């Protein structure tokens, strides 16, 4: 058991644009976060991950960086950021920055130079290719829809952009690019930043043959995800930068399964502390964006278990999350956002905080926020959602009401609506009309409400976080699945040095029976203490019993 601060930590993710507006322009900012440090402290989190706050024209809300060493005007100044960091550090809260180095903005000075001529010193900072007759160099598709290549008239070549055309991919084959990146990472580390979340970091090595993609899914991903030099690039970057600090690094890695994951996080590989997996959030998305797919709890259990075993056998680590700025709200997906909203929010939280890995809470998750209910397609802001809406309109399979319904279910804007602090106008987020519509539920679901009520989702998160600090088994215990065949209940053990946890989670809105008599590990257990439950009546440990709708229990023995 290899002890690390980031294994014991709980991370809170802040989307600055939507957290708190301090100056009444309707846009969240760094001074707004400073106003809410007490709130973070009260929740008890150990680290904050800030979505990008660098200078950016905001084509993809900050994931298109035009200066890595400057702060976006709307968010404040470098002094504000330093103050935020110092104030967090005073409370023993670490600050994790978002690092977007697969691509930059097309308004970054490097790209402005690069596109000028084929002989410009910055030309090879990006990926330029001739077209094939009147077509792009190959069939690779962008994550946001359409070809991943854009024709540039100035030099009559195409450049690669795996995201929007305002996010050209950096050319990692060029050593000068890699040096620039080491430099900016070290610049931030020297400032006192405690780590990084590295955006789509497994896309940095492109197969240099640039062949047409054939694999199902996003066209070309077999050539640009987990490419030939990805581990070489990451290991060298680590050795030259954050590897020399006690930093936490979280690689965001789409198209990575558990075997691939291990290559990024096994401790002897010296790449990342952990990665961000995707598979567990694809269960309702198997048939594409336009159709919500049915899924079974047994699928989720198998998937989580396979990852848990694989990583713990090889001393690898993982981030545990259900929500972030790219994902709709989890109670509306894997829980119940009506009658059992609170119960299911707490049950899902219990799962995240009792598996082996580092839990990540996304702003609003700790008060059980649910999905939006926008009434017009023009309410959506997110570049990805707008792309999907467009292609759904083109394909013609859904009418506009159906498109609106699926957009409300899927959109990244579900996560991006302003944080509801109270039930006043604009939800206490701002004094002006916010940049994005509020979630219409804000008069019932808001922070003030949760701080007042003793059985709120917030209070439950507080308990979970406090328990993690009290019992090392939460961070370090070995995971073991029990009751693998149960269709309604996810049950497992965490086996630690001093004590063990038994976790029982009912994923259904029905009473569900459990029978643990066949679980060898539990045969000799006669007494176990219930340390957490999302129902008010405590229940003595018994080897057989039933769980109420969305009930969660954690026993220690
Ligand atoms: O996301 C990468 C990514 O995989 C997403 O495109 C994801 O598949 C999709 O949003 C799910 O709906 C990262 C950032 O988190 C995202 O906000 C950026 O838009 C993207 O990279 C480009 O930088
Ligand atoms: Ca503001």
Automatic annotation (TrEMBL):
Q: Which residues form the Glycosyl hydrolase family 13 catalytic domain?
A: 13-416
Q: Which GO terms describe its biological process?
A: oligosaccharide catabolic process
Q: Does the keyword Phosphoprotein apply?
A: no
Keywords per UniProt? Glycosidase, Hydrolase
Pfam families the record matches: Alpha-amylase, Malt_amylase_C
Top-level taxon of origin: Bacteria
Checking CDD domains in the record gives: AmyAc_SI_OligoGlu_DGase (cd11333)
Which GO molecular function annotations are given, in alphabetical order?
alpha-amylase activity
Q: Which family does it belong to?
A: Belongs to the glycosyl hydrolase 13 family.
Q: What is this protein called?
A: Oligo-1,6-glucosidase
The organism's lineage?
Bacteria, Bacillati, Bacillota, Clostridia, Halanaerobiales
């Amino acid at each position: 058991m290899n002890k690390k601060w980031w294994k014991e930590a709980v991370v809170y993710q802040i989307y600055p644009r939507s957290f708190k507006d301090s100056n009444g322009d309707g846009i969240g900012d760094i001074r707004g976060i400073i106003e809410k440090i007490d709130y973070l402290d009260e929740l008890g989190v150990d680290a904050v991950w800030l979505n990008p706050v660098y200078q950016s024209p905001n084509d993809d809300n900050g994931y298109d960086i035009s200066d890595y060493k400057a702060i976006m005007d709307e968010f404040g100044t470098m002094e504000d950021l330093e103050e935020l960091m110092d104030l967090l550090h005073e409370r023993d809260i670490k600050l994790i920055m978002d690092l977007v180095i697969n691509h930059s903005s097309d308004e970054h000075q490097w790209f402005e130079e690069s596109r000028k001529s084929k002989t410009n010193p910055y030309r090879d900072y990006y990926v330029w290719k001739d077209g094939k007759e009147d077509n792009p160099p190959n069939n690779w598709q962008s994550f946001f829809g359409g070809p991943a290549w854009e024709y540039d008239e100035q030099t009559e070549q195409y450049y690669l952009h795996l995201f929007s055309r305002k996010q050209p991919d950096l050319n990692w084959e060029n050593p000068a690019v890699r040096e620039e990146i080491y430099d900016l990472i070290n610049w931030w580390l020297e400032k006192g930043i405690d780590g990084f979340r590295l955006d789509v970091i497994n896309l940095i090595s492109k197969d240099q043959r640039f062949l047409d993609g054939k694999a199902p899914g996003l066209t070309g991903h077999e050539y640009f995800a987990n490419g030939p030099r990805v581990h070489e690039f990451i290991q060298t970057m680590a050795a030259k930068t954050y590897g020399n600090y006690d930093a936490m690094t979280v690689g965001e890695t789409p198209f990575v399964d558990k075997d691939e994951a291990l290559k990024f996080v096994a401790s002897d590989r010296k790449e990342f502390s952990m990665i961000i997996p995707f598979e567990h959030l694809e269960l309702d998305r198997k048939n594409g964006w336009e159709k919500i797919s049915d899924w079974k709890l047994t699928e989720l259990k198998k998937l989580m278990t396979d990852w848990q075993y694989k990583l713990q056998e090889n001393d690898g680590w993982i981030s545990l999350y259900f929500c972030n700025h790219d994902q709709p709200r989890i109670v509306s997906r894997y829980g119940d956002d009506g009658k059992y909203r609170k119960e299911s929010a707490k049950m899902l939280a219990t799962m995240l905080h009792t598996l082996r890995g580092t839990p990540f809470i996304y702003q609003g998750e700790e008060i059980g926020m649910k999905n939006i209910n926008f009434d017009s397609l023009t309410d959506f802001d997110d570049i990805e959602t707008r792309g999907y809406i467009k292609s759904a309109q083109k394909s013609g399979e859904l009418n506009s009401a159906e498109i609106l319904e699926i957009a409300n279910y899927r959109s990244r804007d579900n996560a991006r609506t302003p944080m509801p602090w109270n039930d006043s106008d604009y939800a206490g987020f701002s004094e002006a009309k916010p940049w994005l519509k509020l979630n219409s539920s804000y008069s019932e679901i808001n922070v003030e409400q949760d701080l007042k009520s003793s059985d709120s989702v917030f209070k439950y998160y507080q308990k979970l976080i406090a328990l993690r600090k009290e019992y090392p088994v939460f961070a370090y215990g070995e995971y073991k699945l029990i009751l693998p065949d149960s269709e309604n209940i996810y049950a497992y053990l965490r086996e630690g040095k001093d004590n063990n946890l038994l976790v029982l989670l009912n994923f259904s809105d029905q009473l569900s029976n459990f029978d643990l008599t066949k679980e060898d590990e539990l045969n000799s257990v006669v007494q176990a203490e219930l340390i957490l439950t999302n129902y008010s009546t405590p229940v003595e440990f018994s080897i057989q019993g039933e769980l109420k709708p969305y009930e969660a229990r954690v026993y220690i023995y």
